[in-house]
């Protein structure tokens, strides 16, 4: 057990969780107190000692499933219904009874193959309808045995097998049937639109559970085939704060969206505190002398003036074209969510044309909604909708340049991929001389800067700094230093 | 020479210290028989926990570790600590955190005015005692104001210590907490070290408005409390709302789940679910329709725009949004 545990801790660390030595010792100590056959208890015990942030839960769950899924001889990648426990078989028989002429499952042998597709579908439907955990698990295992077509040593990922299984199950039809069943169950005339909505959600929840069970079953078999370590490595995903903006999948973007709001809230609290406590104003000479009277005229206790926290004014100029759009959205979200930390935040977005979007944020208590408006309503296309930094900057200078003052910190967001247009870098020189600070945030890895049509180097000449900002973690660090 | 007050204190406290010389804590007799036992007894006190919560409570007792409970407001963090106190027959000692909370409010404080009075009394009575004697007197326990942390440590009866909303205190105060929770002892320069004779169970809650220090997290068992599953929420409603029917409780839980799946600024918490269910019972509703739901949504949702959006969706005039 301790060996498995240390492999598991290694995997958590590899996935980015900061597990300390003390915590891994705690975990080893803690599992002595729970019955090992109780997987749920084991899971929560390990979680309580090793995972100290809710954003790390997903990574933990995946690793746990791989390392502590049921192992043993009875498990193999090509397993069939024979692998079901007697209890599960019983469940299956009961739920499937009506569907099968023979009144029971074929005794072992070819397992899933002995059922017709219709019979299996019927069995799954019944399992889903009753909603019992054991039946659902059994149905999932059966479906995998029949449809996934898993083969030992085949170098394909779990998603491939998942796809193959789901393709055969017609989940949409299943959801419809579940809603129909709910309608039939309702007392006559009581199936309101509200009820229909609830029934649809319940059906979806059950289907999500079936899907998760199928995924688990596939993973269990893959563990049997490849070993936990290799499988865990192939399933490893970055933590939300380490997801790269430029390459995030749709699902990862959703995870990022969920992370950015709490992060902004924490950042705001931290900055507000820093402003209140951390800063010390200049020496207050008179107060120091007055105080020194009690120490015989020796200024033992210097007094300071109250700090005057001059909040900077922020001007954000963001490229919102194609691949950098996500980065711009998260940055705008973050700075507007902490806008009380600045005396003012003004935002401009561009592709080849440029538009001010400050108003979208001011009228709205909901930053996410404002961002959605930016995407649909800002007027940023001038010619062809390919980034033209030079033109956008020139127009910015003409229309708003005067308003940039020595209180402003200017942030430019983008990859500086200019499609071989003119750079108009003189605009930055001009901005630099007016503004307090000028920073450039680039979501590309610094290794790619100035390759191809990236001309960030040309602009960098006039910036206080050019900062690589590929992840939320990097972005947070930058913004915290700025305010 | 000053008397060694540490010694004296030990003699007073009696009983073996709970810490062995190596610094391991003796958990003492178990408070619970098993994880299931925790779960059942909590349910008996009207608190519905899931397996994760029960496991962590069970371990906290066996490992003598504080539990850090984190999660959105109104998910039962505070209530968990209270319920554990109830089922273990312990007294609940609560330290409510706020910004600016310091040692004198968390740990202890000398009762200055009483000390001053004592000194004045000395002069009036002209007892002519030496300063050493007076000092020893006024820095005795009779002049000490114990705040929650000290109170929990030195209690002889069993105690559950609840440090509520710990994310509100400054880092320095957090460090102080950590010190007390790592040693289960409090050092008072004038009085010596006071050790816990029986170790309290400790719960810290956080609404996650601030990242807590790594050191504190490392010391604690971590429990993330999210909104309950639909089954658990239904059970909570049934346990906490007198006179509600199974059908209505089920509907309430399902509608609340539906609201939580919408993209809203603030999702309803468990306490809001309960408020809503109580209102429905008072109104004599036995089955909710979209109209009634819409009319009472202001109990569940706090923002105007959330209420509008949710009533539209529940009435079926907007398609369900899948984000
Ligand atoms: N698991 C539960 N079982 C019973 N009641 C609960 C549960 N969770 C929350 N509640 C109810 O919700 C209310 C709010 O819980 P509370 O502990 O104050 O939330 P938090 O401290 O997380 O903000 C409590 O008064 C309690 O009635
Ligand atoms: Mg609370």
Written overview of the protein:
- The complex is a heterodimer of chains A (483) and B (323).
- Chain A is α/β, with parallel strands linked by helices and 483 residues long.
- Chain A folds into four domains: 2-68; 77-235, no CATH class; 250-277 and 310-482, von Willebrand factor, type A domain (Rossmann fold); 281-309, no CATH class.
- In chain A, 53% of the residues lie in helices and 7% in strands.
- Chain A has helices at 2-14, 21-30, 39-50, 57-68, 86-96, 117-130, 133-147, 158-167, 171-185, 193-226, 228-235, 250-278, 285-292, 325-337, 358-362, 367-377, 389-400, 426-434, 456-460, 472-482; strands at residues 313-319, 344-350, 354-356, 408-413, 437-442, 465-468.
- Chain A has a six-stranded mixed beta sheet, with helices on both faces.
- Chain A is globular.
- Chain B is an alpha/beta fold and 323 residues long.
- Helices cover 49% and strands 12% of the residues of chain B.
- Chain B contains 15 helices and nine strands.
- In chain B, the strands form three sheets. Chain B has a five-stranded parallel beta sheet with strand order 2-5-8-1-9, with helices on both faces.
- In chain B, a hairpin with a 3-residue loop joins strand 6 (185-188) and strand 7 (192-195).
- Mean pLDDT of chain B is 86; it is low at 1-17 and 319-323.
- At the A-B interface, helix 2, helix 3, helix 10 and helix 12 of A face helix 3, strand 1, helix 10, strand 9 and helix 12 of B.
- Bound molecules: adenosine-5'-diphosphate and magnesium ion.
- Residues 46-49, 73-79, 205, 236, 239-240, 270-271, 274 of chain B line the site of adenosine-5'-diphosphate (ADP).
